[in-house]
Structure formats: C-alpha cells, structure tokens
Amino acid sequence: MTTLHDDLIVFDGLIISDWGRPVFEAMAAGGLTAANCTCSVWENFRDTMSAIGAWNTQFRDNADLIVKAKTVADIRAAKAAGKTGIVLGFQNTSAFEDRLEFIELFKEQGVGIVQMTYNTQNLVGSGCYETTDSGLSDFGHEVVDEMNRVGMLCDLSHVGPKTSQEVILASKKPVAYSHCLPAGLKAHPRNKSDEQLRFIAEHDGFVGVTMFPPFLAAGNGATVDDYVAAIDYIVNLVGEERVGFGTDFTMGYGAKFFEYLNRDKGYARQLTEIWEVEFPDGLGSIADFPNLTAAMQRAGWTETKIRRVMGENWLSLLDRVW
C-alpha cells in the first residue's frame, strides 16, 4: 500500500555526509527525492573542482540510485524514476576565491546553492562566529549580483546577522536560511531570532529548519516530535509556504571531520566546542524520513502543510531562483 510519505516530494535543504553508496542507499530507503549536498566548505577552486570530479564518478558508479539535479524538472524526473536528485552545494564562497567568473563555471557543473560565509570572515562578508560582523563587502555585492544572474541560491545559515540582512536586501532573487533553528527556542549564535526570520520572509525569502542537536532546546535528548515542534514554531512566524527542512545529516563522519569544520579555514582557531552529536530519536539516519512525515501527522498537520514543508516549498523556491 502506498503511504503519504511514498507520494511526497521530499527535499532536504542540507546534507553533509561521507558520500558513498551506503549514504545513497539510505537516501533511497528514506524516500528522499533530492537534497542540497555539500561538496565544499573551506576548499579553494581547485580542490572544489576535484570534489565535483569525485561526485561525477559517484553519479556514474551509482546511477541506479542518484542523478545530478540542475533544474526542478530534474528533481521531479528523479522522483518519477525512483532515484535521488543531488543538488551540489557549497557551505562557503571560498571556492570562488576572488574571481567572479568562477561562479558561472560552478553553476555549469550543477552547483545550485552556495552559502555566503561559513562561520567566519571571508571576502564576501562575516560569519556567525566572527567577533565583528562587517557586513556584505563591495566584492560580496558583486558576488550576489553574479549568483542572481546565473541562478544560484544565496544561503545564509552560518552567516552573521548584519551580513545576512545586507544579502537579503541586495539580492534580486529570494535567498534562504537552508538549515537553521529559532533563537526563540534556544539562544545560540547559529540560531536566528524571530526578527531575522520575519525579515527574510518579508523579503520573499525562505527558511529551512535543521535538527542539529546542539541547536535544539532538548539537545541530544531531542525527539523527532521536538523537531516538528521547532519547524512549527517557524511556520507560525513566517507561514507554511516559506518553510522547509534541512537536516544537516553528517552520516559516516567522525571526530576528525568535525574538527576540520570547527576550525577557521579548516585548521586555525577552534570556533566552538567539539560536540558529541546524537540526532533526534526517530531520525537517526537518512533512511528515517518516513518517521518525520509520521510525526507531522501525529502533530495534526494537514496533508497540504506536510506536502509543502517536506519538499514542495523548496522546489517552488528553487524554481524561482534557478
């Protein structure tokens, strides 16, 4: 019997996992239609191109499970074919280096979502852990313009509040927090205030809600129902048509990788404590997405609301940006 989950478009706004067949099999088991999959964080142009080359090998070797998705039509085709569409994404603009023309080169490779900064200062602006948020630089304004031109979503999840506000105002296309949580439920530099959430929504933007335990009120004791409640908190602020989810799943990675993420530029000062992460009970794996749909049903969500938040809202956003 086909369940509601089987019929849904399921889009995850952020996964950063140890890419390989076990992850792709979990995607299939979870009924994941498509996801924003990180292929660059601190890397420069050359190293990021190497990572994309490795992804192209993954597409060939796992063609029964995954396909590169450059358009919303590609994502819907992946659903029809029973595969997962992979949207290549960056969590930093370090791969652009200081060359605007690199942006179009990456777009041609299938990169559809790029976060403007990752936690700290770069050529574009400031991250959420930078002591002084200097705002969007003049070069950053040019980066936003070029991303708008080629059709690449500006992501603000790890970006400082001033830089985020200035990207929202500068962009001619909708922008997003692809994976964040509300500061109204837990105060944390990575969480967004009610004012920030309303501001992005008022400017045609979008909010993907993460379940990363250190940012949830219940921490490692959180459940899938706590996650749905956090999503609902943001829905009540900005409306159900402007919200999706972005789990931040880190399947297959260990302490060494988390330390790499946690240090400025991948090697310098440590930005936060290295967390012991236990994902919410009921969502321990990418294969567990049916449990998220079931939790939404338990919470009394309508089918329309579930369809929107599980993926249709993401596709509407990407269609407008791409």
Put the structure in a nutshell.
The chain has helices at residues 4-7, 21-29, 45-61, 72-81, 101-108, 138-150, 161-170, 194-202, 224-238, 255-262, 289-298, 303-321; strands spanning 11-15, 34-40, 66-68, 84-90, 111-115, 153-155, 176-180, 206-209, 243-245.
Topology:
Elements: H1 4-7, E1 11-15, H2 21-29, E2 34-40, H3 45-61, E3 66-68, H4 72-81, E4 84-90, H5 101-108, E5 111-115, H6 138-150, E6 153-155, H7 161-170, E7 176-180, H8 194-202, E8 206-209, H9 224-238, E9 243-245, H10 255-262, H11 289-298, H12 303-321
Helix pairs in contact: 5-6
Structure description:
The chain is of the alpha/beta class. The chain is built from twelve helices and nine strands. The protein has helices at 4-7, 21-29, 45-61, 72-81, 101-108, 138-150, 161-170, 194-202, 224-238, 255-262, 289-298, 303-321, and strands at residues 11-15, 34-40, 66-68, 84-90, 111-115, 153-155, 176-180, 206-209, 243-245. Strands 1, 2, 3, 4, 5 and 6 form a six-stranded parallel β-sheet that branches. Strands 7-8-9 form a three-stranded parallel β-sheet. Helix 6 (138-150) links the parallel strand 5 and strand 6 (153-155). The mean pLDDT is 97.
